[in-house]
């Protein structure tokens, strides 16, 4: 990434290859909408290129996830402020859910349980359990301490477990 | 450790995040405690469900769009760099020129103002000077007719100060030199006129004065002046003085000293 920030854009392709799946799946879990997730992923890498000079030493994954979170919350802010888009969004999630019924039940139950969590809890679980991001890195991404993140993640997992087993 | 404490460690137990002895302690507890074993099982089910979720792959469009974006970025990165450099350097010149122009403007304005000031000032001074001279001339002429000898003397002294006195002044001086009752005024007038000996009128007047003057000190003064201005036309008058019986000896002596340098 240091090479990218120095203007080597071919390195950016390598980073895209390595991380775009993670980012996409993270966003997919957050939004449950393929189109929006792809749009946001696109924007995340666009911003990474655009603001490459703002990258300071540190883990690239933390940096790119920080961008992803910002773009995602920007997106939500936008859709909140425009009711038309919110309707659109809800309609899409509904259609996603109907798709899910046809898919395996475990996944549907899990998604349902995940959806019952608060936004921040869901985000933490997704980052830690789905993306396998370590506590100290999550702390870096969300701007917190490792200990606090670990406690929160554990609480969220227990909550999720409760919801999941309830639904089952 | 009680069950609550164990339950808090279960996630780390699954993730193998615990130290070896703590891990063993949890392990032995679970082997004995059914509740905790059930909790562990539930977590494992949850994590199994999460892990079994397939990684979704985005549409091919995403990678294509990215490629396109990267290409565009490369172009803008290589292109604008050249332009930017040029723009930067030209703007440097521009700034330099702007600064230079500002300095030049300030200086021109300063010097223009200064010269303008000087001009008007010198004009004013010139006008004042002229007025002063005119005033002095009028004053001198009026004073020179004053009844008091000392005033007349003062006027003669004033007249002497003019660099280029007008004819009126010269005539007044000549008049004083020839006809003033007071010897001192006549002497001063003669002295003043000696300065303006360039004028032919003054020279003639000096010669005439020597012919008519009877006061010996005035005669000596006139002889000295005429000799110093090398007026040869005064020679007959001087010779006449030598022949006159009334002429005092010291006047004769003065003539004798002066004559040789004239001839």
TrEMBL record, chain A:
<dbReference type="Pfam" id="PF08281">
    <property type="entry name" value="Sigma70_r4_2"/>
</dbReference>
<protein>
    <submittedName>
        <fullName>RNA polymerase sigma-70 factor, ECF subfamily</fullName>
    </submittedName>
</protein>
<dbReference type="InterPro" id="IPR039425">
    <property type="entry name" value="RNA_pol_sigma-70-like"/>
</dbReference>
<feature type="domain" description="RNA polymerase sigma-70 region 2">
    <location>
        <begin position="15"/>
        <end position="80"/>
    </location>
</feature>
<keyword id="KW-0731">Sigma factor</keyword>
<keyword id="KW-0804">Transcription</keyword>
<dbReference type="InterPro" id="IPR013249">
    <property type="entry name" value="RNA_pol_sigma70_r4_t2"/>
</dbReference>
<dbReference type="Pfam" id="PF04542">
    <property type="entry name" value="Sigma70_r2"/>
</dbReference>
<dbReference type="GO" id="GO:0016987">
    <property type="term" value="F:sigma factor activity"/>
</dbReference>
<dbReference type="GO" id="GO:0006352">
    <property type="term" value="P:DNA-templated transcription initiation"/>
</dbReference>
<dbReference type="InterPro" id="IPR013324">
    <property type="entry name" value="RNA_pol_sigma_r3/r4-like"/>
</dbReference>
<dbReference type="GO" id="GO:0003677">
    <property type="term" value="F:DNA binding"/>
</dbReference>
<dbReference type="InterPro" id="IPR036388">
    <property type="entry name" value="WH-like_DNA-bd_sf"/>
</dbReference>
<dbReference type="InterPro" id="IPR014284">
    <property type="entry name" value="RNA_pol_sigma-70_dom"/>
</dbReference>
<feature type="domain" description="RNA polymerase sigma factor 70 region 4 type 2">
    <location>
        <begin position="108"/>
        <end position="159"/>
    </location>
</feature>
<keyword id="KW-0805">Transcription regulation</keyword>
<comment type="similarity">
    <text>Belongs to the sigma-70 factor family. ECF subfamily.</text>
</comment>
<dbReference type="InterPro" id="IPR013325">
    <property type="entry name" value="RNA_pol_sigma_r2"/>
</dbReference>
<keyword id="KW-0238">DNA-binding</keyword>
<dbReference type="InterPro" id="IPR007627">
    <property type="entry name" value="RNA_pol_sigma70_r2"/>
</dbReference>
Automatic annotation (TrEMBL), chain B:
<dbReference type="InterPro" id="IPR011989">
    <property type="entry name" value="ARM-like"/>
</dbReference>
<dbReference type="Pfam" id="PF13646">
    <property type="entry name" value="HEAT_2"/>
</dbReference>
<keyword id="KW-0863">Zinc-finger</keyword>
<feature type="domain" description="Putative zinc-finger">
    <location>
        <begin position="3"/>
        <end position="36"/>
    </location>
</feature>
<keyword id="KW-0479">Metal-binding</keyword>
<dbReference type="InterPro" id="IPR041916">
    <property type="entry name" value="Anti_sigma_zinc_sf"/>
</dbReference>
<dbReference type="GO" id="GO:0008270">
    <property type="term" value="F:zinc ion binding"/>
</dbReference>
<keyword id="KW-0862">Zinc</keyword>
<dbReference type="InterPro" id="IPR016024">
    <property type="entry name" value="ARM-type_fold"/>
</dbReference>
<dbReference type="Pfam" id="PF13490">
    <property type="entry name" value="zf-HC2"/>
</dbReference>
<protein>
    <submittedName>
        <fullName>Putative zinc-finger</fullName>
    </submittedName>
</protein>
<dbReference type="InterPro" id="IPR027383">
    <property type="entry name" value="Znf_put"/>
</dbReference>
């Amino acid at each position: 990434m240091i090479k990218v920030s120095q203007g080597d854009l071919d390195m950016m392709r390598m980073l895209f290859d390595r991380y775009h799946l993670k980012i996409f799946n993270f966003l997919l879990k957050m939004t449950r909408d393929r189109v929006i997730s792809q749009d946001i992923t696109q924007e995340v890498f666009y911003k990474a290129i655009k603001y490459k000079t703002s990258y300071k030493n540190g883990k690239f994954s933390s940096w790119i996830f920080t961008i992803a979170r910002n773009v995602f919350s920007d997106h939500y802010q936008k859709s909140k402020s425009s009711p038309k888009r919110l309707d659109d969004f809800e309609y899409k999630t509904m259609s996603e859910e109907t798709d899910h019924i046809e898919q395996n039940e475990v996944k549907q139950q899990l998604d349902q349980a995940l959806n019952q969590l608060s936004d921040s809890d869901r985000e933490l679980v997704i980052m830690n359990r789905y993306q396998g991001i370590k506590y100290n890195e999550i702390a870096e991404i969300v701007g917190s301490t490792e200990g606090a993140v670990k406690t929160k993640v554990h609480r969220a997992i227990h909550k999720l477990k409760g919801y999941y087993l309830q639904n089952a | 450790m009680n069950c609550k404490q164990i339950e808090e460690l279960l996630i780390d137990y699954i993730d193998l995040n615990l130290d070896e002895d703590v891990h063993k302690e949890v392990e032995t507890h679970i082997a004995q405690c059914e509740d905790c074993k059930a909790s562990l099982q539930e977590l494992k089910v949850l994590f199994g469900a999460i892990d079994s979720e397939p990684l979704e792959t985005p549409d091919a469009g995403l990678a294509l769009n990215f490629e396109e974006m990267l290409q565009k970025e490369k172009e803008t990165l290589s292109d604008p760099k050249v332009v930017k450099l040029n723009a930067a350097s030209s703007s440097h010149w521009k700034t330099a020129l702007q600064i230079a122009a500002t300095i030049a403007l300030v200086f021109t304005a300063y010097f223009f103002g200064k010269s303008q000031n000087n001009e008007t000032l010198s004009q004013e001074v010139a006008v004042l000077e002229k007025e002063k001279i005119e005033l002095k001339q009028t004053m001198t002429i009026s004073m020179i007719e004053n009844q008091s000898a000392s005033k007349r003397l003062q006027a003669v002294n004033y007249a002497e100060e003019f660099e280029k006195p007008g004819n009126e002044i010269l005539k007044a001086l000549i008049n004083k030199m020839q006809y003033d009752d007071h010897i001192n005024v006549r002497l001063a007038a003669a002295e003043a006129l000696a300065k303006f000996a360039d004028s032919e009128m003054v020279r003639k007047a000096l010669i005439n004065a020597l012919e008519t003057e009877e006061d010996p000190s005035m005669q000596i003064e006139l002889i000295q002046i005429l000799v110093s201005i090398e007026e040869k036309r005064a020679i007959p008058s001087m010779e006449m003085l030598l022949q006159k019986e009334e002429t005092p000896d010291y006047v004769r002596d003065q003539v004798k000293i002066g004559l040789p340098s004239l001839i």
